[in-house]
Amino acid sequence: MTRLVLSESCGGLAPLRARGGRRCAIALPPPLHLAAGPRRPFSAAAAFHRGWALRVSSPTRLASVIQDEEDDKRSSPSQGEDAEFNPGAPPPFGLAEIRAAIPKHCWVKDPWRSMSYVLRDVLVVLGLAAAAARVDSWLVWPLYWAAQGTMFWALFVLGHDCGHGSFSSNPKLNSVVGHILHSSILVPYNGWRISHRTHHQNHGHVEKDESWHPLPQRLYNSLDTMTKKLRFSMPFPMLAFPLYLFARSPGKAGSHFDPNSDLFQPNEKKDVLTSTASWLAMAGILAGLTFVMGPLQMLKLYAIPYVVFVMWLDFVTYLHHHGHEDKLPWYRGKEWSYLRGGLTTLDRDYGLINNVHHDIGTHVIHHLFPQIPHYHLVEATEAAKPVLGKYYKEPEKSGPLPFHLLEALSRSLKSDHYVSDTGDVVYYQSESETSTSAQSSD
């Protein structure tokens, strides 16, 4: 069985074979500047810092069933030009080949450049709020809500980069900036960071994925009518994020604010308490501003943009894993691997919004190598396309605004309801498809 190395040099997962038939632990290679030359003393402080960095930016545990990439290649059927492409088949390439195609400078994290994006976004947020409050016109407020909600979403993406360690190589800087950005938009930084780590660690796995994962048919059938409507009827799914933070998804228990939730490991309790305290502090600041400025003004300045931000977050994260015209597989058991799960994610083009929300639409390479900084994702994706071949789904080009994606969202909500209770390679189904299939068999 293959184990994985988490590499600081590439930020990805590389196979490491166990020797002597024994289980192999997760290993973190030394930083590049220590890779060669005489060995230096390794202090206890350095060991603590290194372990803390691993906790912040990388998975602390790996799923027990990760396929050997070489076995995947040997078992992969022909995907030649004359053969019908099967997106659920093991790919004829591995993570190492994708990584090798990406230029080395794409892995470099520049904290000054990252902080410049934070400064840009914060200045825009403050400028929009000051201008809207000064003009105070009902002709301007709707424009402000759309713009400010989008900027809240941009702040979230930068905090998300902090959680992955792609913001900088300094874990303390990542933590401080991540807490400030996420707390300002009522997101518990560490609680969400850890659950998002679980999502990346298990992307494409029916039971173990954490974000917008499919429901097995038996669980779907057990939902009451109201729950089904809230999950699959617009606009309710686009308002799901706050509920998810407090109660997760159907079939999963826990809260992003509770350190004892099964989302977290025992040694992460202090991290969760810290982010929960930061969230409460921001809630207190908002309550104080509401008392000083009045509830109507705070509704206009903060609450409505917050709702727009939530809609952006749910819209983008959902479409990264749903809505392709050709349904993509989900996996269980031995069919799942980190690579195969990552290849079921989707890139999306958001037009003018691409730059505003830091190219988060370049999602495939981000999922496979989450420590690549956002400002290198487009270049890294272009470099990796020849290796990915047909496993890369080219995004539909957008006009200035991504209205074309609304159709993909609508189509997916109508047809992507559940997957079979059994099977290791499964695809979304809907009640209408199941009933039609049953009638045909009769």
UniProtKB/TrEMBL annotation:
Transmembrane spans: 117-135, 141-159, 230-247, 276-294, 301-319
Region (Disordered): 67-87
InterPro entries registered for this protein in UniProt: FA_desaturase_dom, FAS_N, Fatty_acid_desaturase
Subcellular localization: Membrane
One GO BP annotation of this record: unsaturated fatty acid biosynthetic process
Main location per the UniProt record: membrane
Span of domain Fatty acid desaturase N-terminal: 41-130
Pathway: Lipid metabolism
Domain Fatty acid desaturase, residue spans: 137-392
Single GO cellular component term: membrane
GO molecular function: omega-3 fatty acid desaturase activity; oxidoreductase activity, acting on paired donors, with oxidation of a pair of donors resulting in the reduction of molecular oxygen to two molecules of water
Key word Amino-acid biosynthesis present: no
Keywords: Membrane, Oxidoreductase, Transmembrane, Transmembrane helix
Family membership: Belongs to the fatty acid desaturase type 1 family.
PANTHER family: OMEGA-6 FATTY ACID DESATURASE, CHLOROPLASTIC
Protein name, entry field: Fatty acid desaturase domain-containing protein
Organism whose genome encodes this protein: Brachypodium distachyon (Purple false brome)
